[in-house]
């Protein structure tokens, strides 16, 4: 009874779940069921809900309409992904959308091929010319003219991860291989691109300039790679060994921009604006709510700058909701807030449901919202308030453990790995991540003061090196991870069902089922 009441307090959670189910069904039936049947089913279920008097049947009809809407969104998206590609080798003009990265004898990059209605995204491999090294002049935002064959996205053989599907879900229309003598740089006319596309390209150029500023300020090697990944969302400088160390030690989430990073950015901006609003003649900024709008504008600008990874977008939406209801005496972070974030993202791009980052992000936050209150209930609130240091360490452990509970089945399914010492690693890595974010902001604004800048750069390098050394040490400990885990989709789903039942049983005995 208590559980049912709790679920009724979260109508958006049920809507999000039905929308996800509808997307799954819609995509699986997209080859045989078109858009019209889903539209008809959505309208029919909505009309039936209007005329049905029984409350339970009315709710079922409304949920069925949400499911049908999910099917419509998935089918529409599937149709839009079927981009016609030119046959055989063809000449085209393209803008470079990501900083080129060397991989053996080729460089990899994202290209936006100019087409009449905008750009067509493709993944490109360009054969390096080691005699002239022309490829070294290519950077994000540059234009090129090329001659190659563009093929439909395809996956890697004997791999659980379907690379071709991943490309399609991220709006890549194809892949291509460009020979060293079949391309040249070119000045392209981008006036036909939308304002949004031109803004994104300009921001990616600016992000690359910020990375170059980091280099000029004394950062280098993997310390530079870690800082750029954590502050600018660019991980192309991180080498394979560092990625593996972070993955085995259970700290790879720190390298991916997420709620941790965006919350710190939000906190810094809110604090700075509160100082400005504290000036007598500028107090109207806070009273009128303009200060919150300025903070949110800066947060979303940061989201545009670092790219639209699911975890960053989810965090930005949740922070937007947090700000919108901050003047109401309500619980600002709840399952309803999380569900609304998911609904917005799924409506914009229904196939983001298949993105591993989306799944991990929402699994982690859902688990934190559910299990953190249970862990904290083991100690009295008064006792925790009296022992602030213990509370800080315990809070960090609780959040890390809760997130690991929520993401462990997915990580085991996708990556075949379970990190055994992630709790220990996060005690050190998470505070280091906060210090890196704060220090990076100081570093960027201290450029006019060379002495201060050099000290901050040294401190930032030391923190990054510490983080790198800790993850390397943990990853080489005996039993650092359990490898080659092979579980199916059904087994992964059953693990989540078991986790949910565990939560319900513990909550029943501790009387903590309250999602508000």
Any key phrases for this structure?
516 residues; OB fold (Dihydrolipoamide Acetyltransferase, E2P); 3 domains; five-stranded mixed β-barrel; 9 strands
SS element count, helices:
20
Q: How many beta-strand elements?
A: 9
- Return residue spans where pLDDT drops below 50 for at least 5 consecutive residues: 1-7
Mean pLDDT: 85
What structural category do the secondary elements indicate? alpha+beta
Q: Percent of residues in beta strands?
A: 5-15%
Number of domains: 3
What does this structure look like?
It comes from Prevotella micans F0438. Its main location: membrane. It is a multi-pass membrane protein. It holds the Pfam family Competence. This is ComEC/Rec2-related protein domain-containing protein. The protein is globular. The chain is of the alpha+beta class and about 525 residues long. Strand 2 (about 100-105) and strand 3 form a beta hairpin. It has 20 helices and 9 strands. The strands form 2 sheets. Strands 1-3-4-6-5 form a 5-stranded mixed barrel. Strands 8-9 form a two-stranded antiparallel ribbon. The chain folds into 3 domains: about 1-80; about 90-195, Beta Barrel (OB fold (Dihydrolipoamide Acetyltransferase, E2P)); about 220-510, no CATH class. The two termini are about 15 Å apart.
């Amino acid at each position: 009874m208590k559980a049912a009441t709790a679920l009724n307090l979260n109508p958006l959670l049920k809507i999000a779940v039905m929308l996800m189910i509808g997307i799954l069904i819609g995509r699986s039936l997209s080859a045989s069921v078109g858009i019209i049947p889903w539209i008809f089913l959505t309208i029919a279920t909505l009309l039936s809900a209007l005329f049905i008097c029984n409350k339970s049947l009315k709710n079922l009809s409304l949920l069925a309409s949400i499911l049908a809407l999910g099917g419509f969104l998935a089918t529409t998206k599937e149709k839009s992904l079927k981009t016609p590609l030119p046959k055989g080798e063809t000449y085209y003009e393209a803008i470079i959308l990501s900083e080129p990265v060397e991989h053996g004898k080729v460089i990899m990059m994202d290209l936006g091929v100019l087409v009449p209605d905008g750009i067509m995204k493709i993944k490109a491999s360009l054969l390096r010319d080691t005699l002239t090294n022309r490829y070294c002049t290519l950077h994000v935002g540059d234009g090129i003219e090329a001659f190659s064959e563009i093929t439909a996205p395809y996956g890697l053989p004997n791999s659980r991860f379907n690379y071709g599907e991943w490309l399609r879900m991220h709006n890549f229309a194809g892949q291509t291989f460009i020979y060293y003598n079949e391309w040249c740089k070119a000045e392209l006319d981008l006036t036909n691109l939308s304002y949004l596309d031109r803004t994104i390209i300009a921001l990616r150029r600016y992000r690359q300039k910020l990375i170059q500023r980091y280099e000029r300020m004394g950062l280098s090697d993997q310390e530079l790679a870690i800082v750029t990944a954590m502050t600018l969302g660019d991980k192309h400088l991180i080498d394979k060994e560092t990625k593996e160390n972070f993955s085995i030690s259970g700290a790879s989430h720190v390298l991916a921009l997420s709620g941790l990073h965006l919350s710190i950015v939000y906190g810094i901006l809110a604090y700075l604006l509160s100082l400005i609003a504290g000036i007598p003649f500028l107090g109207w900024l806070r009273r009128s709510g303009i200060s919150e709008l300025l903070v949110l504008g800066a947060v979303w600008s940061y989201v545009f700058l670092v790219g639209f990874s699911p975890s960053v977008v989810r965090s930005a939406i949740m922070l937007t909701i947090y700000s919108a209801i901050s003047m109401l005496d309500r619980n600002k972070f709840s399952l309803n807030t999380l569900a609304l974030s998911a609904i917005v993202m799924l409506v914009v791009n229904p196939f983001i449901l298949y993105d591993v980052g989306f799944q991990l992000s929402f699994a982690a936050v859902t688990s934190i919202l559910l299990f953190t209150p249970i862990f904290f209930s083991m100690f009295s609130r008064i006792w925790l308030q009296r022992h602030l240091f213990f509370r800080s360490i315990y809070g960090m452990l609780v959040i890390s453990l809760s997130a690991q509970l929520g993401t462990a089945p997915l990580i085991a399914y996708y990556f075949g790995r379970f990190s055994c010492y992630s709790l220990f690693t996060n005690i050190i890595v998470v505070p280091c991540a906060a210090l890196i974010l704060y220090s990076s902001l100081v570093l960027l604004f201290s450029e006019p003061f060379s002495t201060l800048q050099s000290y901050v750069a040294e401190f930032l390098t030391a923190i990054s090196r510490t983080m790198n050394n800790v993850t390397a040490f943990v990853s080489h400990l005996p039993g650092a991870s359990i490898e080659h885990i092979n579980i199916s989709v059904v087994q992964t789903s059953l693990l989540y069902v078991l986790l949910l039942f565990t939560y319900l049983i513990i909550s029943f005995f501790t009387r903590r089922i309250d999602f508000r």
